[in-house]
Amino acid sequence: MNTAAAEDLLSKMEDLKLRLSEAEEAIDAIKNGSVDAFAIRKDGKPEVFTLQSLDYAYRVLIEKFSEGALNLTLDGLIIYSNSYFSKLMNVPNEKVTGSYIFDYIAGESHQQFREYFDLALQGSSKTEIMLCAKNKNIPVYVSLTNLQPQLATIGMIVTDLSEKKQNEQLIKIHAETLWKKNVELEHLNKSLDQFASIASHDLQEPLRKIQTFTALLKRQCNKTLAEESNELIDKIKRSSERMSLLINDVLNFSRIVHIENMFVKTDLNQILSNTLKDFDLLILEKDASVRVENLPVVEAIPSQINQLFYNLVGNALKFAKIGKPASITISSRILPSEEAENDFNSRFNLDKQLSYSEISFKDNGIGFEQQFAEQIFSIFERLNNQEQYSGTGIGLALCQKIVQQHHGGIRAEAKENDGAIFYILLPLTQSANVVAN
Amino acid sequence: MKNKSKLEGVGKRKIFLQLYITGMSENSVRAIQNITLLCDQYLHDRVDLEIIDIYKNPSVAEEQMIVFSPSLIRQFPLPKKTFIGDLSDVEKVILGLGVTLKE
Prior knowledge:
The complex is a heterodimer. Chain A is α+β, with helices and mostly antiparallel strands. Chain A has helices at about 1-30, 55-65, 85-90, 95, 110-120, 160-220, 225-255, 270-280, 280-285, 300-320, 395-405; strands spanning about 35-40, 45-50, 70-75, 80, 125-135, 135-145, 155-160, 265, 290, 295-300, 325-335, 355-365, 410-415, 420-425. In chain A, strand 5 (about 125-135) and strand 6 (about 135-145) form a beta hairpin. Chain A is rod-shaped. The termini of chain A are far apart. Chain B has one domain (about 1-100): 3-Layer(aba) Sandwich (Glutaredoxin). Chain B has helices spanning about 25-45, 60-65, 90-95, and strands spanning about 5-10, 15-20, 45-55, 70-75, 80-85, 100. In chain B, the strands form 2 sheets. Chain B has a 4-stranded mixed β-sheet, with helices on one face. In chain B, strands 1-6 form a two-stranded antiparallel sheet. The longest helix of chain B has 18 residues, at about 25-45.
């Protein structure tokens, strides 16, 4: 019995040894990579499993993707996370897989994430939430997609918004600083304007008295005073007249402020013809010829445009050459868009969305050197002596202020003794928020 | 209540398990779900579980002599034990891990 049993056992052992070595050989073959596929029976059906899988490229794509990519069960269990997500969360990948996504959601975003997770069960959802990495919250954009019925899971893509949020924060801070500065500037501007207005107004009063009493003095003592003294009184009179003019101009200048919502469709031909009527006498006196081409209709503040034209026509007549008939040409054209960006016009910050009209005032007067073409628009800047050409030096500064108020620009071209051309750019329409209803 | 089940066999010592999977293959997904459920229900914080994707770390698979995926390895307590498959037979896994349940 014993020998028989022993023999039986021995033969069984031999059999097992053989099967073991077969199994080991198979395993070695697989290990060596000399096996491509398994042909096995599964659920009674033959199936082939290839070892080098075809989804290799997809796997590498998802794995190396620089966005977080996760696959979640419907309970939120993470069954796959690419390395980007585990790095973002600062948790080893071995620990991320098999944990729950809810563990990585910051407290404040929990409810929101639950809602969007449930929403994703119907198809897909996208939202911004806070993730909670070790001691630090990370703003992210998550996109959830239900992968059923092909897979019983939900795919999740996570985009880190930290940098974007930081930039947004910076922009916000900058915008706030700008806004504060702007408010300060507006205050400053207002008080300056008020100052100018009050000062000019209060200055007029004593000046009027000087003028009145000088006139009175002259009338009363005309005969008793020496010739010399009479001349002195005349000088006082002229000086006070000039001062009055100066004060009026300062007052006008300070009034051109922040008149938004006052823009209306304005026919520039109408304005110009009114302006020219004011100069009827002077035009006759100077034997001037004025040629006007058709001007456009623009959205503008009529009283200011009137002032603008008045100053420019006035200048053209004032600075006419002595002993030569003045010739003034006023024309306009639509500024071609390519010219809106040339050297002359780029500094005006023109709005690319708008069309501009370029109106030119050309004269044959004394002109000036081109090097002064910018300087002339500064307040109190005068190129000519007062003996020959009266004026306060405010006229062109006022023109510039008006044009700026209309979101346009003004520039000049001239030659010494050979006339000047003033170019005005005005937008045909103002941007919507400043136009009156 | 399953949560109140007590563990015996491995005493109070910590269990260190590693599950080796291949990406999101069907069996891998099932194995992850089964082992996490098992740990949550019976082992709680007494288990240290790592889930390793051998697609991501082919060299680790070689070091651990992993041939089949999914494979669950009990690294501690010794001796080392390997379970192959999707771990759907919970009782067999618990038994194999040396954990007996007592109500």
